[in-house]
Amino acid sequence: MKSKAQPIILAHGICRFDVLLNALLDLDKDMYNRFHYFKGIKSYLKAHGFVAFHSNVGWASSVQKRAHDLKSSIMKITHDFTRFEKVNIIAHSMGGLDARHMIVDLGMESRVASLITVGTPHHGTSFADWGIKKADRVVRWASCLGIDITGFRDLTRTSCTAFNRRAEDIELKNSVFYATYAGVQPLERIFFPLRFSYKIIYTLEGPNDGLVSEQSARWRAEFFQRNDRC
């Protein structure tokens, strides 16, 4: 992290599990921080002298929509960058893709000092491939009902590969500091509901955390750190 004077933005992944509770309690308040998607991380950072904020983006919207939402959150937090000139982003899962799309496509490369991703499927996930192949009609039906879950398509390996090719030159030349982290576990330590996805991903991609493989989360070797204790 380049400076404690630059705020840290916590960017959540797809299908934020606390969305209903957040509507009732406003989990951004410090008193409810332990119930938030990021479970006390904002409070921990603040206790150690950092300025930290939660962002809020579409629950399962397309990565383009989520990138715009993330930019809007950051513009609000920074008062259109009159309060802070740059931000640091710590992003979990799809939040890392949201941030990368925002930086590359929405003119934010000069406003992001660093992007740290944790368990982000930079190369997509074979579980999304499986899900879209089996149930893309559900995504279409949901859209007809006004429910946007098109973000699942953006987690496929084909979609992420296309973005990586388009973004590579821009990301290598900009001034953003990047770092990536991945967690891996053996099957017996995986949360039971994720064991099915773990097996699919392990067969096609190797070690993973139940949703994202190490290979996908690492993105580029020079950015990567691995955590075997998650």
Tell me about this structure.
With 230 residues, the protein is α/β, with parallel strands linked by helices. It has a single domain (8-224), classed as Alpha/Beta hydrolase fold, catalytic domain (Rossmann fold, 3-Layer(aba) Sandwich). The chain is built from 8 helices and 6 strands; from the N terminus they run E-H-H-E-H-E-H-E-H-H-E-H-H-E. A 6-stranded parallel beta sheet has the order 2-1-3-4-5-6, with helices on both faces. The longest helix is centred in the middle third of the chain and has 19 residues, at 126-144. The radius of gyration is 17 Å and the shape is globular. The two termini are 21 Å apart. The mean pLDDT is 94.
Poorly predicted tracts of residues: none
C-alpha termini separation: 21 Å
Instruction: Please identify which CATH superfamily we are dealing with.
Output: Alpha/Beta hydrolase fold, catalytic domain
Total of domains = 1
Strand order of the largest sheet: 2-1-3-4-5-6
What is the CATH topology assignment? Rossmann fold
**SSE-based structural type:** alpha/beta
